[in-house]
Design a protein that fits this description.
The protein is mainly α. The protein has 15 helices and 5 strands. The chain has helices at 74-87, 99-102, 109-125, 143-152, 157-161, 164-172, 179-194, 207-224, 264-272, 293-298, 305-313, 319-333, 335-345, 348-361, 363-377, and strands spanning 61-66, 92-97, 133-137, 199-201, 232-234. The chain has a 3-stranded parallel beta sheet. α8 links the parallel β4 (199-201) and β5 (232-234). α3 (109-125) crosses α13, α7 (179-194) packs across α8 and α9 runs antiparallel to α12. The longest helix is centred in the middle third of the chain and has 18 residues, at 207-224. It is globular, with a radius of gyration of 21 Å. The protein starts with 60 loop residues before the first strand and ends with a helix. The structure holds adenosine monophosphate (AMP) and tryptophan. The site of adenosine monophosphate has 17 residues, from α1.
């Protein structure tokens, strides 16, 4: 994949340039004729900026969820959060911290509460604006659990058993294969369709869940009549960010993350531990930026990555130089967010208010959907 599309920069075919994606926008260029996001392109960052508003046409609704799994990492930001931030201008955006989902693996109540507030603070620090989007905690709108049950009755067990994340979780937590793990994608579908959202910004690891959401929607609409739009996943230009090991997807559970809101020293430590081009053994060996994860990350933290890549190719620079530069750029890039995060963590009341208002604002949408669905299914 990728080669026949003429893409030149790629680590592995499936990593940085996904089939269906369009090349990175170069600074200053614009794509006036480009189709809107829901017309088929999968890379939201490249969707054109909104046209001036002439009429009060309702904006299409988007929804995404994120687990309160502790400190956000570069994979979360490059793969999903920066699309959340960008899309709040163009869409009616609803973002949810999915504490019900987290209960499938987190069983310590204090930890769950703390991490939920931390994730909310992190999202606000990274640029979610409660004036322009809705941010709320999943369990504050409990209608979703009723809808998940209703959707479960149109979902064959075999669809859930073959979900890759379920198989993975069974291996990761063999002592705790709870029913919630199996039902996880049904609850995710309920999250999205409770608000009849049609667009879902996520990282590539969520593609199978979104496909399942679409199948569940189809099954529901066939049995009870057209009710929900089929939700569509949209990706950034970094749909799979590799971890510091350079092999696996960056993930908290693997322990290969670069935590964007950590202290500068911690970020330096994490970046300096990155595995680079394993075939570049001597400092004088030419590097291969296409397969070097450090070089790939440089694409997102500066406009001069091509010069950096050239330095690697000609062995003018060494891997250590390139890592040091990356660490400093990441630290600088996230410095304002880090500062804002510290402020928000010190004012939990303010964050709690934003979350409470978020859940309240979307109550009418949730109630209207539930009234319609109960009626269609013969419950009331
Ligand atoms: P999670 O922490 O699993 O709830 O993930 C939150 C969002 O970040 C989801 O949309 C994921 O798809 C995305 N994400 C997580 N890890 C990565 C990664 N390594 N690369 C790209 N996107 C990611
Ligand atoms: N399963 C997603 C993850 O692990 C989180 C999630 C829950 C979600 N509900 C959602 C994502 C609805 C998109 C839409 O990252």
């Amino acid at each position: 994949a990728g080669a026949e599309r003429g893409t030149t920069h790629r680590a592995t075919a499936d990593t940085w340039n996904m089939p269906g994606m369009v090349p990175e926008r170069t600074p200053g260029s614009s794509r006036p004729g480009a189709g809107r996001l829901h017309s088929g392109t999968m890379t939201i960052e490249l969707a054109p900026l909104p046209a001036p508003v002439e009429t009060a046409r309702p904006r299409p609704r988007i929804f995404s969820g994120i687990q309160p799994s502790g400190a956000p990492h570069i994979g979360n930001d490059l793969g999903a959060i920066r699309n959340y931030v960008r899309l709040q201008a163009e869409y009616e955006a609803i973002y949810c911290i999915v504490d019900y989902h987290a209960l499938t693996s987190v069983h310590d109540p204090d930890r769950l509460r703390r991490q939920t507030r931390e994730m909310a603070s992190a999202l606000l620090a990274l640029g979610l604006d409660p004036e322009r989007c809705t941010l709320f905690v999943q369990s504050h709108r409990p209608e979703v659990t009723e809808l998940a049950w209703l959707l479960a009755t149109v979902t064959p067990v075999s669809w859930l058993e073959r979900t890759p994340t379920y198989k993975e979780k069974k291996l990761n937590q063999p002592e705790d294969i709870n029913h919630g793990l199996l039902a996880y994608p049904v609850l995710q579908a309920a999250d999205i369709v409770l608000y009849k959202a049609s667009v879902v910004p996520v990282g590539k690891d969520q593609a199978a869940h979104l496909e399942l959401s679409r199948e569940i929607v189809r099954a529901f609409n066939v049995r009870y009549g057209e009710t929900f739009p089929e939700p569509k996943a949209v990706f950034t230009s970094a749909p799979v960010v590799l971890g510091t090991d350079g092999v696996k997807k960056m993930s908290k559970s693997v322990g290969n993350t670069i935590e964007i809101l950590a202290s500068p020293d911690e970020i330096r430590r994490q970046v300096m531990s990155m595995v680079t081009d394993t075939q570049r053994i001597l400092r004088t060996d030419p590097g291969r930026p296409e397969v070097c994860n450090v070089c790939q990350l440089h694409r997102f933290f500066g406009t001069d990555y091509e010069q950096i890549w050239e330095g690697e190719r000609t062995a003018r620079t060494g891997c250590v130089d390139t890592k040091r530069l990356l660490a400093e750029r990441i630290i600088e890039h996230y410095a304002p967010a880090r500062e804002r995060y510290r402020e928000l963590i010190a004012q939990p009341g303010q964050v709690d208010r934003v979350l409470a208002q978020g859940a309240e604002r979307i109550r009418p949408i949730a109630e209207a959907t539930m009234t319609e669905v109960r009626e269609k299914m013969g419950l009331r």
